[in-house]
Amino acid sequence: MKSFFEEYCRIIGLLLFAFVIILLFSTPSMIIAKSITTIGTELSHASVSETPVRTLLDFGNNEHMRAFPIQIGDWKGSDYNTTRVAERLGADVLLMRAYSHPKLYQPIFFLIVQSNNRSSFHPPPVCYPALGYTIEGEATEEMLVQNMSWAEGPWMSERDASFTGTISVKKLIVVKESKEDGKVTERRVVLYFYVKENPFTSNTVTMIRVSALAPLDGSYDGILNITKEFMADTFPSMFEIQREESVLFILLGSGSVIGKVAIVLLFLVPLAIIFYPQIKRLRKV
Predict the structure, then answer these.
(1) Three-state SS for 150?
(2) Which InterPro entries match (predicted)?
(3) What angle (nearest 5°) sits at the alpha carbon of residue 99, between those of residues 146 and 236?
């Protein structure tokens, strides 16, 4: 009579083999259950330009929001009353400021908004038309950030401890027209991105938005560059960049001999269980 192990060894071995495959093609963060936060331009789905980050602020905490720097370089902020805007956006936590620069004649408007219900949150492409604006243009922009800290930080060399690169943000150009003659009375440049947690474990959505008034006609490149530079200046106060991680198979395979032996053993164990009856018969011969 066969034992339980002999009866089900192939099923046990196949399950263990599947576990080994999943394990080897996972990253260290996935295995130790770190929460992965990304910033991206799309709310409803992932985009190829998403960047993994570690947040330096608790976006769900009003005190953390109020503690966000008033002074950012030469920019100085002043708070706005956010009650009406929070209701309009379906937001739970919100920071809204106008940042002024001594060399510029107009402020930059900065907004951090968080909602615990994605379905009730109103993203800019929905919100602006509801406020009477017409979307004149929509695109993705690359924002240059410099000397950002890596999340791994302390044990890295000074040369490798900072990140300089681009972050993708969404751009809207919106206009408001006069009801009488249809002439453009207001034009805005809007940049924004989302801070997203795992959608299977959190229904929270956070949006960072920067906007500014633009010339009523002609080029808006000047104010666009200013808003991009300002948004890049705010970035180090909110985030650290996380490095892209290699899967364990690559980490072990490209490492020492011990790592390569570990890979071989991880595959041999389930294979030995799957073929246990044949191995047992060979030993009896």
Answers:
(1) strand
(2) Methanolan_biosynth_EpsI
(3) 25
Alpha-carbon distance of 16 to 8, in angstroms, equals: 12
Q: Are strands 239-241 and 93-100 parallel, antiparallel or unpaired?
A: unpaired
Written as six digits, the tokens of 256 are 């020492």
Which residue shows structure tokens 């949006």?
207
Domain boundaries, the chain: 4-26+262-284, 35-241
pLDDT of 264 reads 86
State pLDDT tens for residues 67-78.
899 999 999 999
Q: What is the pLDDT of residue 161?
A: 45
Nearest to 92 by CA among 53, 120, 126: 120
Query: Which tokens go with 53?
Result: 């980050």
pLDDT (0 to 100) of residue 97: 93
Give the DSSP per-residue string, 71-103: EETTEEEEE---HHHHHHHT-SEEEEEEEE-TT
Beta strands in 91-183 (DSSP E): 93-100, 108-115, 134-149, 162-177
* End-to-end Cα spacing for the chain: 20
Q: What percent of the chain has pLDDT over 90?
A: 25
Report, as an integer, the average pLDDT of 88-110: 86
